[in-house]
Amino acid sequence: MRLLKAAAELRRKGILGLNERNLRLVGELNPRHLMRLVNDKSITKRLAVSAGIPTPDLIGTIRTSWEMRYLSDMLAHPGGVAIKPANGSQGNGILVITNPIKGGYRLANGARIDYGDLRFHVMNILSGMHSLGGLPDTALIEQRVRFAGIFDDVSFKGVPDIRIIVLKGVPILAMLRLPTAVSDGKANLHKGGVGVGLDLVTGASKLGMQHDKMIDHHPDTGHGLSGLYTPHWDEMLLMAARAYDVTKLGYLGADIVLDAERGPLLLELNGRPGIAIQVANRFGLRPHIEPVLARDTSVMSLEDRIAFGKEIYRAIHAGTESA
Question: Are 159 and 82 contacting, i.e. CB atoms less than 8 angstroms apart?
């Protein structure tokens, strides 16, 4: 009886559960044959570039042990590089190198790593250690993002990013994801990163969460999480909404980073974005998804879809501090 009451209360607050997300959103809106477009970061990057969506520059790829001979040249790229498994998930297998140092390289978290360990790491990527399903994978070598200093006070040795949830091409919810000491400088929430709800209309930050617990200050810097301004906000919404046009996935998460020189860059797309964004925003997804599911968005322009998402957000949060 107690469980039934708890479930009823969650539904009343508009909280979307994992099973409902899987059945109604992922299962019905994301055809399996299209999921490879976001599961493989090399395909995602190619689609984004062709659609005019800016991404971090690709320096090169390593697909076989024979191509390992090119690794040292790729690592010499000025400004640093990021090494990623093409089919990785949840931030696993990603290494960010800031610069070479005597006898090795400096990682973004301040640690030192030598060339032999880097080779071993890339070989592990090729073997499929970090890929979905453990299948052989490709290592992507990208130019390192030099993130804008706007979020310096609420980041710990890593790159913050913005996650925007897009439903049938309509942006509906967003959050800022912040690296912490616990997350080893990565912005992934499951590793201990901080999620901060963002006003969909303005991009302004509200309060946040870590390990599914509500917080109002960054655990490492002690800086308050509310009242932060996200620059280029409308441009980010356009990028996220356009991602639907190039993938045709009805439910996806667009992860965007803010580079100090180039502005917003699409980092990756996720065909199974989690539901912790509800905790970060402190309200449920359901009131935001129902109006979109009921509308034929295929006849709407890109700009109209963004305006529709903002309209829904305003209507739900009218009279609150989120409006």
Answer: no
How do strand 104-107 and strand 194-198 relate by DSSP bridges? Answer: unpaired
d(CA 19, CA 4): 16
The two structure tokens encoding residue 287? 């009131």
Q: What is the pLDDT of residues 2-42, one digit of tens each?
A: 444 444 555 667 889 999 999 999 999 999 999 999 999 99
pTM of the shown model = 0.91
Distance between CA atoms of residues 136 and 125, nearest Å: 8
**What is the distance, to the nearest Å, from the Cα of residue 129 to the centroid of all Cα atoms in its chain?**
21
Token reading at 221: 């810097």
**Mind listing the pLDDT tens digit for each residue in 168-226?**
999 999 999 998 888 877 778 888 889 999 999 999 998 899 988 899 999 888 899 99
Report the distance separating Cα 109 and Cα 97, nearest Å: 9
How far apart (Å, rounded) are the C-alpha atoms in residues 162 and 195? 9
Q: Quick one: fold of 2-38+148-317?
A: D-amino Acid Aminotransferase; Chain A, domain 1 (3.30.470)
User: What one-character DSSP code corresponds to residue 122?
Assistant: H
Distance CA 321, CA 314 (A): 11
Tell me the domain boundaries of the chain.
2-38+148-317, 57-143
Dist CA 60 CA 41 (whole Å)? 13
